[in-house]
Protein 1
Amino acid sequence: MAAAAASPSRELTQNPLQKTWEPYDNGLPAGHSAQRGVCMTNCPTLIVMVGLPARGKTYISKKLTRYLNWIGVPTKEFNVGQYRRDLVKKYKSFEFFLPDNEEGLKIRKQCALAALNDVRQYLSEENGHVAVFDATNTTRERRETIYKFGEENGYKTFFVESVCVDPEVIAANIVQVKLGSPDYVDCSNDEATEDFMKRIECYKNSYETLDETLDKDLSYIKIMDVGRSYLVNRVMDHIQSRIVYYLMNIHVTPRSIYLCRHGESELNLKGRIGGDPGLSVRGKEFAKSLAQFINEQNIKDLKVWTSQMKRTIQTAEALGVPYEQWKVLNEIDAGVCEEMTYEEIQENYPLEFALRDQDKYRYRYPKGESYEDLVQRLEPVIMELERQENVLVICHQAVMRCLLAYFLDKPAEQLPYLKCPLHTVLKLTPVAYGCKVESIFLNVEAVNTHRDKPENVGVDRSREEALRTVPNHL
Amino acid sequence: MQVCMTNCPTLIVMVGLPARGKTYISKKLTRYLNWIGVPTKEFNVGQYRRDLVKKYKSFEFFLPDNEEGLKIRKQCALAALNDVRQYLSEENGHVAVFDATNTTRERRETIYKFGEENGYKTFFVESVCVDPEVIAANIVQVKLGSPDYVDCSNDEATEDFMKRIECYKNSYETLDETLDKDLSYIKIMDVGRSYLVNRVMDHIQSRIVYYLMNIHVTPRSIYLCRHGESELNLKGRIGGDPGLSVRGKEFAKSLAQFINEQNIKDLKVWTSQMKRTIQTAEALGVPYEQWKVLNEIDAGVCEEMTYEEIQENYPLEFALRDQDKYRYRYPKGESYEDLVQRLEPVIMELERQENVLVICHQAVMRCLLAYFLDKPAEQLPYLKCPLHTVLKLTPVAYGCKVESIFLNVEAVNTHRDKPENVGVDRSREEALRTVPNHL
């Protein structure tokens, strides 16, 4: 009899929700197996913003946080200015920031420490992966303090500095995000601008920019002139590499992104999901209306993207302009449920149907995809949308929900239930720290394809309970 | 239609002293761009010089006051640029990599003007390195074996090459943040410790920068293999999500033993999300990461069929696939071309990592192998990736050493060669002639 093998292979069980194969010991999931896409960071990352006021630090912090959360990396930003506003109820003037204002310095240090404490709690106790510490951090001394804090707690620290001397850019920033700040709620625009310029001056004398020699052992990216050039030093791991790539692709040129679905399809009419059908009569009407709408908008250098499915391409064809087909914009693959009605899914796969309602984001169709998978495959689309200016994306319901969730910072739980009706264009325009949304219904009727989460998501629910929220169809 | 990455051709211009990795970067970047579907070609001016001046004598050829040398070198640069123009403007090339020292501002201006005249976007890639150990290592890796030094001893070659570098140093004008602020470029410092990136103009330049920032030169090996033989392999069926056969499980144990014996430092193990690769990894008893993008090619309506059944049910599809196996997409499935697109993040992460074992599938392994061995699209779908065989890839000089290790557990052959007759009117027998044996 041969000696026992070192360690016999564990049995595999398929997770019924995500359809992933996991090893188990005595009926319990075992370790040793990680899903790619989420496990990008082995130790938490502390991103530290650096720069004078009005250099885009908060803009970058919020955008980066939004992006990382969307791709599945739990991230949170900590704005020290906000801590200050919570502590010092009423902002008086720039004098608070004078370098010899002892009271001010004391309060500001207290706020920074309070924020760092919350960072520690988020990364070490609440399963956060990345924390973005948003403050000026303009002195080497302050950055050393933060770096030591990171080391003590086992975090990797990555600095993001924004350097800008162009007075026009700074003036525009002040208009965009400072005039409306709670600090200046009782001031006129001129008063606010004057005070803020003096605030910036308070920092200038002690500002120590990241230096190629003095800071050569730190990991950082220095963004110069709103992205004209970058200095990147010592990228340590995958997540830092992704952050650098993202930061190098975003821009602030004003533009709009138009999202819509294909026109109503033949399968939409029948309440069937997926497939590769053509447009219905009304869908073709919509395509013409879309062409008219786009013309009227008079958009400069509009790029048009579609999926590789017939219905989006048919829709784009009506525009009479060049368009690019992206396979990754194809609708979510419903696997064995392709071309079924919800009634048929309930009939044939009642368990699957219930599991999907329990966790619509993570649920993967048998031999198909999940919303979570969709986000992974759409990431290059988001990256290219960031690079581009005016774009119209003609896509599909689940795909549009994923893209919309990115722009509107919607969490995973809400994403699969975002309302993206047929024949409705969403015009997204970046403004201040977020995105303005205009919803334009193009006046061609279409079926409703939105199915709300039912009340009863238990696997033992009745057929009626399962189908209660199914929209009407032929 | 894939992402339209280049509306006008791109001219990449290498910059740097000798032995700074320019040719290494040129070749690697060219390989990557071609693999992701961007037609790219490199033009090494040193090669033009070797073709013109049959026998290299000494570093004196490169002395700054050697009129004859300067004349020949300028001639070679112009000949190379002429070939660049032909490739980009007449032969549908998208990217040309102009590999030469290009160390003076004057030379770079000439090239930039050439680009402008022809409607190319110019992007400079400079490699700056002062670490004498790195330079010495480069000389050993790629210069001692150069045709220039075929008749010299290592010491003679090194001494001559060091003097060659000196010839360039006095006139070297590095890319400057102020003087060159209107150019698009990346300056790579100290083999990737830091980068200066200026005015990235479009998508392809952004991708190039991302790639260059992720590659490294730390020695390591990449191990590629397929899952152990599966139950469907035995039956000659493609795709599906089957478990391992008895022999497949044997292989998994042999793989564990092989990996142990190799004594690999900090080995990462990656699998797909299909049962057969995960079962294989389980035998190793080490942590592994599951990547959905490593899943086998989706055969759509042909999933779990035998080739005989595909011929029976979809004879037209079967013939079309043989006509262009790289671009052919299964109905409701994927093509090899699609596979390459979805595997790109795997390649990027493989470049970042060091020692990695990738347990994947036949079509997936062919795509990854084609990247490392620079195989073109026509050959990729026919690369031999048999079951139970590990390929150990080790970067060396400008390429990749491959060692093939069969782990001594028998398995079916799953390789189907391209048949002679790929016409849609061929007979069943002609179509099935190259199908390997199965149960």
Protein 2
Amino acid sequence: MATSSERSPPPFPDSEDQDVLDAEEVRGRDSDEDEDLFGSTVCTGGVDLAVSAATKSDDFVDILGSETGAQRGEVVKADVTVEATIDRSEVTAGVTDPLSQQEAKQTSTTPVIDLSGDSQPVTSKIADPLVDLFSDAPPAAEAKKPSSANIDLFDDEEGSDIFAEPLQTKPAKQPQKSLFGEPDEDKSVTTKVTAGGPLQDSKPADIFSQAAASTPSVTSTVNPKTNGVHSEEDGDIFAEATVELSLDSPRNERKKEATAKPSAPAPTSLPAAASLAKPQPPALEEVSSDLNPDKDFRGHLMMYVLFFSGDGMNAYMAYKVSTQTTLPMFRNKTFTVRRRFSDFLGLYEKLSEKHGPNGFIVPPPPEKSLLGMTKVKVGKEDSSSTDFVERRRGALERYLQRVVNHPSLLQDPDVREFLEREELPRAVSTQALSGAGFLKMINKATDAVSKMTIKMNESDVWFEEKLQEVESADQQFRKLHALVESLVVHRKELSLNTASFAKSAAMLGSAEDNTALSRALSQLAEVEDKMEQLHQEQAASDTFTFAEMIADYIRLLVGFFPHRKCEFCDLQGSFDHRMKAWQRWQDAQSMLQKKRETEAKLLWANKPDKLQLAKEEIAEWEAKVTQYERDFERVSATVRKEVIRFEREKTKNCKRQVITYLECLLQSQQQLIKYWEAFLPEAKAIA
Amino acid sequence: MLQVDISDALSERDKVKFTVHTKSTLPNFKQNEFSVVRQHEEFIWLHDSFVENEEYAGYIIPPAPPRPDFDASREKLQKLGEGEGSMTKEEFTKMKQELEAEYLAIFKKTVAMHEVFLCRVAAHPVLRKDLNFHVFLEYNQDLSVRGKNKKEKLEDFFKNVVKSADGVLVAGVKDVDDFFEHEKTFLLEYHNRVKDASAKSDRMIRSHKNAADDINRIASSLYTLGTQDSTDLCKFFLKVSELFEKTRKIEARIAADEDLKLADLLKYYLRESQAAKDLLYRRSRALVDYENANKALDKARAKNRDVLQAETSQQLCCHKFEKISESAKQELIDFKTRRVAAFRKNLVELAELELKHAKGNLQLLQGCLGILKGNT
């Protein structure tokens, strides 16, 4: 959750930061914990602004050419959207209490409508352009023709990228250029606004609605269009942005600078828009609560997976998933649901289907284990089966944790449903031997074959390096995992042997006829008994903290290369998705080439009737090529971002886990010292 | 004064040559200080000569040192040589060092056990005066003892079978002396317990060693992970690898010390209690002989035939039994004193070493955690 706190803040850009800093001063409530978080978010805004400011003059011109003028306005608008949201969020933040809607409305209204007489200078400043935006946007939107959803979506995503991932300044900037370069730019802006519109309709409580209210006409005109246009991906993309909101802003809200919020919640409205676009009833709820954070907003999810199982041979294991959250997107703060293992798999299937093609790394669930399950069912009191259960429980918990920690996945309605809804439709496709599963297997096999045949000449050095890195890390982790497993085995052996030695020592003590020696020996037996406990605990810690962490990473790493045969799982990897996108692009290109050749031939053969058709086809394919190329770039960017996110998470997680592990070791050493210290006088007392 | 130690030992292929160094003021030695080279077989010869000597029937014969067993270690070294290609150079050197250390440890242990045997003999009030012992210490040529041939081994085997069968018979005889009766039950129980404890401690230590080996391998694996590039995480891994490397050294030391202080002690007392049991067996045997002689005498008297012969043998048996009983009592008391002292010494040392190592480990962990937490 503290993801953003780890980001290195890029150099502070000029103006926007000033504003932000001002705001910071204005609102003097803060806590140091959020300082860095805040810093990074500020940068987000800063970068964004800086880019747009810079682009106005140079980049834009190349890309847009004649459209520059219009573009200029749009840039401002784009800018403003951010600001607007900032504004809004500030309001949200400002309203600390279980926000009385009235208050919210007032505060937001003031900046939007009033330009000057506001108590908060920053807000007013921002509000200024906001008004601009709203007055500009509608005409722009109307002027523009509805463009393909794809591009639109692309824009949005890149835009939110920037908010979400300030770490990567360069790659972030690049897409942004294209964002602004897109003729559909304002379209996307409008979409955002529109999002405000319906929002307002359904939720009068919404603060943003005030803003939207000023442009009701826009809302109504664009709204239907947008609804149609929004794709699933769109939602995700928005979600990605929202992540920041849900992960950062909560904290901000409580303890932190108001300023941090500006950038973080900037995309707030986006997910709202996204989810609104889809007919998702909970989305509304989310939106409303999003904007009405209550006081105890701590902004993170806590999850316990408790295990209990049914009866009989048909028994299945059910897991109790308890969520504790202060995220406003959930209806309650704590809730518990019962889930089966297949539900977890089902969740993964849904998520990977939706997000995988975009290059997201969808955390893989633990693998199905028929053997382990059967063991659990048959030999109830076996230690290996309890071990298995605990392992799986832990793995599932970490899996869920990883999903909710993933900024975009958390926003997915399926995730929310999984955590919140009482009854979940049974996931059929995940059953091991079902027909669907079989089909999927075949699909995967063909996929694997095609992947092996695709030879992608990697033009991007970064990807090449990463790929190699990941591959060797994968190998190393595997090796390490095997070693740790063997350590666990030996540790368990040691524990067993220590226990039996303790027994023998006790017997020896009882056989000994020297009283003091006999006593010392039975003491030794006790010490060894305790040692046995220690070894056992240590073995558990080896397993659950160390080995499982490694296993998790192997699972995750495998996520990069699903085509590789692996015992852990088989899933769609982001690198492969990228490869697929590339393949599509290449195919389209060669197709275009063919069409062009045909055209040339026709031209030469002088057949004007067919020529027209060929030209149309060329145009069509040209569009496709650009689209696929963009797709590819988008996927690349996402993968890149995801890999960085993954690495950051990995580093953090690894460190935390290893430290926990070492602390456990430390504790057992302390115990050891205690035991032997108690024993020493006994040994000395032997006379 | 008689002081014996093994000043040096040499491992040659399948045999170990011990340099036995003696310092003595006893008049029957030509010099005050001298050294000879002896092999394991010669130690066995000496031991067997004690066992076979009727004179020593009333004493606990110091147990013979176990045969040096380097086979496992050698085999491992050989395997390592074969697997050289499949390992990285680092791993190879690490493994090699490890095996060499293991070999050295076994070597030292073997030497120590042989030395203990000689010291026990040298400290024994009667055995130290044994002629064979003196020859063993002084004669600077090869004693040209040969290992037992197959026939002798077979004989030994039968002897053992007869002895143990006899032991069962003899054990059923109720002892007249409470002290010996008590000692007998005690030793029987004790021997079994020590045997059990020794086996268990061996297993415990072996698994401890295995765990230490695993830690070592984890350390090198982490090291490889850590050297892949220079990211933060890699540095972290390097640090952890370093820690593991150190802790595994300590773990290995713990295992080695437990081996030395605990397992070897138990093993020694396993053999020593066996020797004490043998003593009791000899005494019981003598007792049975004595009772049989008494019966024979009664019979002879009743028949009034060969009375004198029976009387002599009865008196012989009586004398033998009494002699054994007398020295055995003292021997058994000494055995107990020695045992308690040895256990005290070793257990104290064990506890101290365990403490030392645990504290070392603790310090390492604390230091490492401090660094790691400081970095994050």
Protein 3
Amino acid sequence: MTGILKQPGAFAITPHKVSLCILLKIYAPPAQISVPFPFSSVSQHNRLGLFLLALTKSCDDILEPKLDELINQLRLVSQNWEASWLIDQLISRLSSLSSPDDLFNFFTDIRGILGGPDTGAIEDDQVILDANSNLGLFLRRCVLAFNLLPFEGVCHLLTNLGIYCKEEFSSCPPYEETSLDGSSSNLETYSEYENMDLENFVYEKVSEEIEARKEASERVPFHLHTPNALLSLVDDINVAADSASKQTDKVRVASPYEDPPSNMIQDIDSSGAVFLRSNWQVQGYLQEQADTIEKNGSAISLNGFEIILRQLQKLAPELHRVHFLSYLNGLSHDDYSAALENLHCYFDYSAGNEGFDFIPPAGGNSFGRYEIALLCLGMMHFHFGHPKLALEVLTEAVRVSQQHSNDTCLAYTLAAISNLLFENGISSTAGILGSSYSPFTSMGISLSVQQQLFVLLRGSLKRAENLKLKRLLASNHLAMAKFDLTHVQRPLLSFGPKSSLKLSTCPVNVCKELRLSSHLISDFSSESSAMTIDGAFSTTWLRNLQKPRGSLILCQENGSGNSSNVSQFCAQPTSIPGSVLQVLGSSYILRATAWELYGSTPMARINALVHTTCFADASSSSDAALAYVKLIQHLAVFKGYKEAFSALKIAEDKFLSVSKSQILLLKLQLLHEHALHRGHLKLAQKLCDELGVLASPVTGVDMELKTEASLRHARTLLAAKQFREAASVAHSLFCMCYKYNLQVENASVLLLLAEIHKKSGNAVLGLPYALASLSFCISFNLDLLKASATLTLAELWLSLGSSHATRALNLVHGAFPIILGHGGLELRSRAYIVEAKCYLCDTNFNVFEDSNLVIDSLRQASQELQLLEFHELAAEAFYLMAMIYDKLGQLEEREEAASSFQEHILALNNPQDPNDPLVSIY
Amino acid sequence: MSSKESCRSELRIAIGQLTNRCLYSASKWAAEQLVGIEQDPAKFTPSNTRFQRGSSSIRRKYRTHDITATPTAGVSYVATPVMEEDELVDADFYLLAKSYFDCREYKRAAHVLRDQIGRKSVFLRSYALYLAGEKRKEEEMIELDGPLGKSDAMNQELVSIERELSTLRKNGTVDPFCLYLYGLVLKQKGNENLARTVLVESVNSYPWNWNAWTELQSLCTTVDILNSLNLSSHWMKDFFLASTYQELRMYSESLTKYEYLLGTFGFSNYIQAQIAKAQYSLREFDQVEAIFEELLRTDPYRVEDMDMYSNVLYAKECFSALSYLAHRVFMTDKYRPESCCIIGNYYSLKGQHEKSVVYFRRALKLNKNYLSAWTLMGHEFVEMKNTPAAVDAYRRAVDIDPCDYRAWYGLGQAYEMMGMPFYALHYFKKSVFLQPNDSRLWIAMAQCYETDQLRMLDEAIKCYRRASNCNDREAIALHQLAKLHSELGRPEEAAFYYRKDLERMESEERDGPNMVEALLYLAKYYKSQKRFEEAEVYCTRLLDYTGPERETAKNLLRGMRSTQSSLPPTDVDHFTP
């Protein structure tokens, strides 16, 4: 025996089904002519038939419509007069069922409208339900279910019928205050819909309008009795329904019905959309909510959703998925304990064996799939920033899934672990992954973290390939690309002399991985759309690699055989599922990041632009925010702060709800940058501290943020001319980066150290740092950073004396192509100034002959620096200009340059400018 | 505390009033306490023991007492049940209704009282309706859903009762009994705060209704709530506090209260059983067994609380006593959940787990919120290696009472069995949080940390240390602590714990491989510390054992002698005669 699981939902007879039977009886009265009494035409009659068909199809509801809802729907379907006739009939027949014997007789009568086995004998114009038709089957099921009822059951049915009718009769007075205003106006709208030509009617508009209307009246039509929470539930399902109705649209082309008025099916659909509450539909609803949470968790209110979930749980106690949703809800609102409790609760009850596409394991393995629980738990800990715990749990997940040979789960787990190792600085994995996975440790060779990571990634990639988990494959390729981008690949085992090692990253590999991951889309579009969704949410957690969340249990990749059900409720408008689009989108983000590192700003910008334009809908909000961040940063570097801040305003409005977002980070970064340039050092320090506070206090978590914060701290100190402190901060930063293998960051830290020594007048000490930074840049192909390092190097040489001017000039000229092509305002103007200084120092340089050469670049520099409001450098440029003009004897220009110089110096020394619009942002 | 005499008279009147209102379990409880009061031998006359059931003359007589009954110093409280009874115009109807009620024809009883407005009639009518609704609810649950599934069957009468009682309360024409019923209804409807207030009102104006106290107790889930209650002082409050402390796992406070109550109610079986319950939670099984033996002697047909007795017998592996108990309760009333549970325990002890599951299931069919049956069934499933079913059963127990540390512990065990020790830790943590003084839980958690998969030995050591601090009966913790420390290369700590373990084994006169291990380790340790005298002592003790250790000890001794003789030759010269 496997637990005490109850068989859910057998076909039980309910009052609603009795009403349907009554309607069916009206639809097909025994021994009648072709068009029975109340109907004026065949089409009228067919209308009712189709309506009934729709109703019977949704008979596996969790919640059945109340009588007044049914009546409302009836009104919509049929004309006024016959509607009231129908309703009268329905109500009177329902209320005539007052004793068990009435029910017995009723169901005996019902049998009469079914055609016998010899259906050939009947006449043409007689309406007889074929016993094998949908409606006939429904009737037969009802009759059977009734006959199976014990007497208690009959009594129950009778009581329930009483309640069902009583609610209708009493519905007006008690509920009037709350619903009347809404319902009456809504009824009008519905008749409007009816009169509309719906041939070209886009369905979304209906739901939009319902939405808007609901906002106005705070009520959805039809659900006068349901509590508010459920109302919103239904409302959301409306949205779900529209994709379903699209499918029926397609079906309609081949519809066998001859005479349906063109708007009729639409009508039925719209009413159908309303009572979509079958088990599937609730699952669909849950799925959709899960998607929303994963896309943008904070958009859903914690408590409001919790209430809905609780209600759902009451209605459908066997539906343990509800616990999972409340786990997701807790997760997205950073409610650690609630998330933890619900996660455990979900897996205790379901053992991972739930979901629409759950296929009972073939070998009768009733063990349960607890490894998925571990995977989810691990990702939860990851999300909450407990890398150590997460690693423990994931290791256990690896072990358990190996034990139960669940390869799919293993592949996901490995991907999750590598993701974890990426995101968090873990200085040593020794003894954690140890014996259980890596084949190397068994050989007694300890691997560094990166090597472990590499092994894991490769393992996961291979597994994903073998198991044909496309999305996982794609995201693994992305992870691989990330790895290639930031890590030098060393051979895992090296024997013999090490001289042959080539210590550099390989951009070709990055591009290859990125390309491979994009192949996914062609794979998906080449598949037929019926096949597509092998678990639209199996990989939703992969959509956003930064924030993994575990809904993959809801759907297993190998469940494609069963997933046609899924497509019914969550079919995507296009043939490419959203999750694929999301993976693709993040590949573009990664491209942008890669080009940013490699130093090609146009490429970076284009990729970010592609993401914002093409994947804005499909991507998660944090991905979208990241793309915006990149674009805004680009603006700041190339167009100055004014434009960047106005763009930031837009982005802030757009991503208002994203908590702990990159947008906030960006804002602090920009403000800090700006404050530094303007010489507003106190503000800069404050901003920098605030940036640091955003990071989690746990060691190894939020490494990027921590590096960023202390880098900025060092820069602020440098600007304040506190060289010793700046150097010590930079030093400890270097140590941290080294410990956690943040090589790319190391390059910039070294450059900063060189800069500090340069500023402190210790050029000789600065040289080795600059050279080290340069070599880092070369081995990681960081071209732009390399150019900037070259520039610093040139400055260092220059400060060693005029004899080195030529060497410095050569260096600057060598870096110019990259700087002018890809560098931002600051870098360019710095290069100009350095160039000018080199010329001026050079003894061979004749000011009187080649003054234009110098003046031109200085003017260019000063213009760009004014855009940036970089007072210090601007002052320097003007100073140089004034000196040159002085030499040349051009007094007017000299005065002009000198006054500009004075202006900037004053601004630098007196940074508080109350009129500054940007300060007020903060 | 009021004098025994006043307690007695209060209870006597209360029993009459409670019985008259068909609050039978409350009156049963009160009667038990009444007989539980120690008889004053001086006043022991037959007339004192005779019950005077609700006759008006007696009541009138006692009503005059309400001033003379002196309450505890400084506390003003109505000590005698003063209930001015309605002038029962419809006394005959009331009698009829009560008879119907006694025959469990609730609806009929309610119908008889349909138009009555006297307080008593109103109460009986509402109460009858409530019970009718409850009965129907139970039936529906079985009809609709099967007893083990969750069901949303509701008591259909709640709404109307609530409406009526709330108007009565607003009008101020409500009596304590109606308040009790109102609280009951509110609690069922989920309005716990108001329910608490109403129940407090009820017990403050009529403290002798034990039902109201128990309802109130079920609403006190934390100490804070308990402390926030504004209860007038009365000796009934002590009963309430004792029982609530027990629920809140404050066993020693509860025991003190009960000891205090024993001063008055010296013969109360109820108090004895409650003490047994607290002792059981403190794992004093011998005392519990003694109490229950005594209880069974005085009250041989008792079924209440006997499941706990069976648990004790189970833990002590008393096969025949358990079977005897099972037979006894089976003959008394086989369709009590407790009886089924006892039989289930018996089969479990016999190792027939399938059968025992059958009986636990039956117990759950009789009362699906029967907490310990869910947990025990979980244990059985664990024994049967059906972990998913076990997890399910435990989870249901936890859902009924999230403070049930046994179920949390069971969940942890189940997951540990499935090879998910880290996942299991979550559950063990829950359970030790709820029951921090139980060494078994700490040991289980420590073992979880110790598994090959985790090897988090430092955490394991912490857990073992906790376990050894809270009276570790099986003495696993000390030994494990010593072992772990020696594994981690901390010889001093290891020696310390081995020595402690040794002392303990000596005092308990236990012997076995652990003893040998401890001796051997200590011998080696002292030898390496160059404290040869101690080392020799341990070595010689080892010589008493057979096996390879004996040889090792001999070798050690020999080695020590030779080093001693070779190292300081001068000393040897001194001592050799």
